[in-house]
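Dear all,

This email documents one entry for the complex benchmark we are building for the journal club exercise. For each entry we list the sequence lines for every component of the assembly. Then comes the predicted three-dimensional structure of the complex as a token string, followed by one or two observations. Please use this as the template for your own entries, and keep the labels exactly as they appear.
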Amino acid sequence: MLIDKSITGFLAELKSDSPAPGGGSAAALVGAIGAALGIMVGNLTLGSAKYETVHEQCKGVSLDFEERLASLEKYIDEDTEVFKQVMKAYKLPKNTDEEKQVRIKAIQEFLKAASTLPFTVARTCLDVLELSVKIISIGNVNAASDAAVAGRMAEAAMWSAIYNVRINLGSIKDADFVADMKSRVDDIVARSEVLMDQLVKTANEKI
Amino acid sequence: MLIDKSITGFLAELKSDSPAPGGGSAAALVGAIGAALGIMVGNLTLGSAKYETVHEQCKGVSLDFEERLASLEKYIDEDTEVFKQVMKAYKLPKNTDEEKQVRIKAIQEFLKAASTLPFTVARTCLDVLELSVKIISIGNVNAASDAAVAGRMAEAAMWSAIYNVRINLGSIKDADFVADMKSRVDDIVARSEVLMDQLVKTANEKI
């Protein structure tokens, strides 16, 4: 599995001439890096008596980060798997009308999965961004830069996942599915803009 | 070394209650992920005869990406090392006036190194962003989302490194050093804004 590879090994696989793993798995990984940093800030806050009044609140935020980290780690490999299924569907035989129909149905089905999964990644990264805004506000000020990094990583990972949603939507014939997905993407982009304003404002105050 | 750890192992170390590795090493890693994706887009372009007219140009871009990838992989561990040296300097004895002087001198020296290194990371990530703009413009359109991801990763990594520069500048007494560093950071931020506009515009056209 990708997550068992070394950093060097993962980077080597990423840069190779194979399209998988690509931007989708990278998005999930960078979201996971953001979540892990958020947890570190939580730990550095829980470890300091100076922040005792926010310890309970901080524990809740850390648990929410942990949940997202676990999901994003899982999505690193899942994104590559779903992408490989699309590639496989494109390679199905197309000699007879029946084969053509089976192939097109499979392609459409897997393309939907290959846009639904990065949407879930994007949604989870939005959560990481929201949690980063919470932790930079209440957390240990010595780790404010780490909390700001967590938020920046989450935003970039969200956008990276969105590009992966969009590139697949371009080949999906089901207009209702495409319209619904586009509207859901617009919603999370709008929410992320509000959160980024808050993150940058707090980062500028504390760093 | 951090880069020899598995993805899972690195994330576990990142989220732990130790401040190192933290946002600085994460910034270098995310910049490296961006560079690796850029190289992949280059490979997918060089592998397609359809893009023959840009093959020479693409080879140059890929070589530039490779150079940044190698540097950023190195900075992942270097950032944690320099941060540990700052922590060690803070723990030096301060019983006598001489000890106090030695300690303060060491802290100031390592704080400078701990802001110079993330500045270099930020500068290298700006290069990755610039190269991502080039590759999304000339590269294989099927990998346009990956090129856009490369640019987003580079921008987030640049900002993450900048937060690490800034948090250390806050404790540096050498006013000239601080002013010079701030002005250099402002320059790369201004350049990144122009490049991000180009990246997002091209991404919206191609994805």
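Observations: The first helix of chain A runs from residue 7 to 15. The CA atoms of residues 108 and 172 of chain A lie 6 Å apart.
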